Structures are given as C-alpha cells and as structure tokens.
C-alpha cells in the first residue's frame, strides 16, 4: 500500500492522524486540502513530504494553469507549509520547474519523484541492513525513534525499512520504538507498522532510551532525518539528540538512514535550519509550553549516515 499517490486526478493519502485506530484514505483535490493535510500531519515524514510537495504543485497547475500570480502563490504556500524537512520545498520546486511545460509535465515529474523515493527506500534497506550487521554482529537489538516506515515515505521507509530487511533476513533480535511525544509517531505509527509486518517490538517512553542503552539492552540506534547538513548535523524529530547522547555514552552506533533527497549541502550546519515550533496546544492544555518539533544532533555524535547511494562514515571524518 502506498502512503501517498496520485489517483484519478487527486492526491490520495493514508490519514496518519487516524492511525492506529482507523485505516482511512483521504482524497485531496485542492492545494488548500493538501496544505491542511501536511500541517495536521495527516501526511508526514520527510520523503512523503517531498512527494506531497510535488503532487501539490501538480494540483496547483491544474487549477491555476492560466493565472501565473495565483500559481506562484500556491507553490510558495506548499513549499513553506512546514519548514524543517528539506524534501517538501525541494519536491515542490522540482515539480514547479516544469510549470512552463504544462500540467501534465508537472504531474509526470511528481510521479518521477514518487518513484525515486520508492527506489531509494529499497536501496537504503539493504545497504543499511548490511551496515548494521557489520557494526553490531548477528541479531542486533535496535532502538528507533519517531516513524520512518512506509508511512513516512511512499512504501518501505528509511530506518524502519532497514529494520524490516533485518527481520526478513532472520537477523533481528528486538526492536524498541521510542514513543515520540507529543504526537506519538512511535507509539501509534511505528508500532502499527511493525505489528502489520509481524515484527515483535516494545514501545518505550522517550526518556527511557538512554537508560536502556546504558543498561546494555540496545546494540544500535537507527532513525531517520528531516535534513542532513553539509557538516553532517542531523535534523530529526525532537528527542533524537537525547538518543544520540545516550548512544555515545553507551558506546553503541548511532545510525541515520535517509535518502539523498534529505541531504542538504546548501545548509552548512544545524544552526542554520528553521526548527518548526508546533505551539503549546499539542503539549498541554493548562499552561504555556515550548514545543520544538525537531532537534539538531551534532555530527560528532553520528556514527554513519546511510543513503540510497552511499554510506558516509561521519565517525571517520567523511562528510555529506
Ligand atoms: O513531524 P514528522 O512526523 O513529520 O517528523 C518525521 C520525522 O522526524 C522522521 O524521523 C523523518 O522525517 C524521517 S522519515 C523517513
């Protein structure tokens, strides 16, 4: 099943706000509906956002094809619907480059982006599984954070794709899914995907991760990214940095699995990235709150970055 696709003139997505209770498909016919879906996290995860951005421009081209100002405005709104994952603006811009060739050319480019993400997931799964086994030996116990499965891409996913591949090889001893406060992408979505794949797992509260690592219950941390900067800094779901510190302290690998479409060498360091603030309401109803949705993991805590084309051994001085 594809998390996002173009079907009969509209964008179809699995509504991730309804999971794990309901498996519901939403059909999005307008740019406004698509932007609302992105902002509510009905569609989410860096690779899926790249595809959503491109399909959004395809929708805009159909509706505003003869009105350049409206079209420009729609593309701008899509690109900036969420600020942190580089894939969103990148996907929208790639599709927008075809606007002068007409709506069908824009849609074709969006479909190419979708297909590239499908291929990238497959490449990362096998390359990442090889690296995990090389670094950890047979039957590792892994901890993952947020959701990096097919729901966050189009199919398969990034870090969770590696987990699935290790399971298929009979080479996985256990998975801990960090719950991922406040929207519970780990407890709701990763757990749902692992259950559907028949992979035994346990959910842990976010703050338990470093302690479980210190107690020797985790052999490697494996997770995704929303943006990887030129110096190797990794932007990912809030809580990632804590897991990286825990892994460093425990002396276990900290592995980032992300497609090349998430590598942003135009951004020098994590300090240059806008971290989305999602407001207080998601955290608490009775006091003010600070709610950064992502954090920056400094490159010196990263062992390796696995993409669909290469393994970057950050610990050995390699950089994106
Ligand atoms: O706010 P979200 O759910 O879109 O955040 C997603 C993440 O942080 C993922 O880890 C990242 O996009 C990688 S998805 C393969």
Features:
about 325 residues, Four Helix Bundle (Hemerythrin (Met), subunit A), 2 domains, 9 helices, binds 5-S-methyl-1-O-phosphono-5-thio-D-ribulose, M1Pi_N, Initiation factor 2B subunit alpha, S-methyl-5-thioribose-1-phosphate isomerase activity
Commentary on this structure:
The chain has 320 residues and is of the alpha/beta class. The chain has helices spanning 31-39, 46-64, 68-79, 86-96, 103-136, 159-168, 185-196, 209-214, 240-250, and strands at 4-7, 10-14, 25-28, 141-145, 174-178, 202-204, 220-223, 227-229, 234-237, 254-257, 263-264, 294-297, 304-306, 311-312. The strands form 3 sheets. The chain has a 7-stranded mixed sheet. A 4-stranded mixed sheet has the order 11-8-9-12, covered by helices on one side. The chain has a 3-stranded antiparallel sheet with strand order 1-2-3, covered by helices on one side. Helix 1 (31-39) runs antiparallel to helix 2 (46-64), helix 4 (86-96) runs antiparallel to helix 5 (103-136) and helix 5 (103-136) packs across helix 6 (159-168). The mean pLDDT is 96. It binds 5-S-methyl-1-O-phosphono-5-thio-D-ribulose (MRU). Belongs to the eIF-2B alpha/beta/delta subunits family. Keywords: Initiation factor, Isomerase, Protein biosynthesis. This is Initiation factor 2B subunit alpha. GO terms for molecular function: S-methyl-5-thioribose-1-phosphate isomerase activity; translation initiation factor activity.
């Amino acid at each position: 099943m594809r998390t996002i696709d173009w079907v009969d003139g509209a964008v179809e997505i699995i509504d991730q706000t309804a999971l794990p209770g309901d498996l519901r498909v939403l059909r999005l016919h307008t740019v406004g509906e698509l932007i609302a879906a992105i902002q509510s996290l009905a569609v989410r995860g860096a690779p899926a956002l790249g595809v959503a951005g491109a399909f959004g421009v395809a929708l805009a081209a159909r509706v505003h094809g003869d009105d350049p100002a409206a079209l420009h405005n729609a593309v701008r709104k899509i690109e900036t619907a969420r600020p942190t994952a580089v894939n969103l603006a990148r996907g929208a811009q790639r599709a927008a480059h075809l606007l002068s060739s007409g709506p069908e050319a824009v849609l074709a480019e969006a479909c190419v982006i979708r297909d590239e993400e499908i291929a990238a997931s497959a490449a990362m799964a096998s390359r990442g599984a090889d690296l995990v086994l090389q670094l950890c030996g047979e039957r590792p116990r892994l901890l993952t954070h947020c959701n990096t499965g097919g729901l966050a891409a189009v199919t398969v996913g990034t870090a969770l794709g590696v987990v699935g591949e290790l399971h298929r090889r009979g080479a996985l001893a256990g998975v801990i899914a960090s719950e991922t406060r406040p929207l519970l992408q780990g407890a709701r979505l990763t757990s749902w995907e692992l259950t559907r794949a028949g992979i035994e797992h346990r959910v842990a509260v976010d703050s338990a991760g470093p302690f479980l690592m210190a107690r020797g219950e985790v052999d490697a941390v494996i997770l995704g990214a929303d943006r990887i900067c030129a110096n190797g800094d990794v932007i990912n779901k809030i809580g990632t940095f804590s897991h990286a510190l825990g892994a460093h302290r425990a002396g276990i690998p900290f592995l980032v699995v992300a497609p090349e479409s998430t590598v942003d060498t135009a951004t020098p360091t994590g300090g240059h990235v806008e971290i989305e603030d999602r407001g207080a309401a998601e955290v608490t109803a009775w006091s003010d709150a600070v709610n950064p949705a992502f954090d920056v993991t400094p490159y010196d805590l990263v062992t390796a970055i696995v993409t669909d084309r290469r393994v970057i051994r950050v610990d050995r001085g390699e950089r994106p």
